[in-house]
Specification:
This protein is α+β, with helices and mostly antiparallel strands. Helices cover about 25% and strands about 50% of the residues.
Amino acid sequence: MTERSIAYGTFVIERTLPVPPARVFAAWADVQQKTKWFGAPGGDNMPKQFEFRVGGREFSEGQVGDTTFTFDVLYQDIVENERIIYTYDMTMNGARISVSLASVELRAQGNGTRLLVTEHGAYLDGLDNNEQRKEGTIALIGQLEDFLKSA
């Protein structure tokens, strides 16, 4: 029998990006752009569902080795070029591993953008933890930075 538990964690990632907030926002809001940076490098990152609007859902599924992960999002608040707030859960091989609240803040800074990503997570049954999620999010933000620099 699986021992049930919840571990909580919060992290904040800050970056300065060399493009204006509208460009960063578009990289999150446009499915064609988002698939170029969000997800596993070299993988099929096209979501099965993508409704970028308040109350909209985004759903994707991907493989890492023999492990299948799902990412199921509900957009809670969107202010164009300023913020995105969403809740999401993740599963691993069908087992729910976390439920999170994430916010993306975009602030004009000179000719660029100050990006703040804050996440509050509930990590379930020892299957995930705050440090692993932070590392994964740092990697995704790095992919976003690379995409924005190359586009």
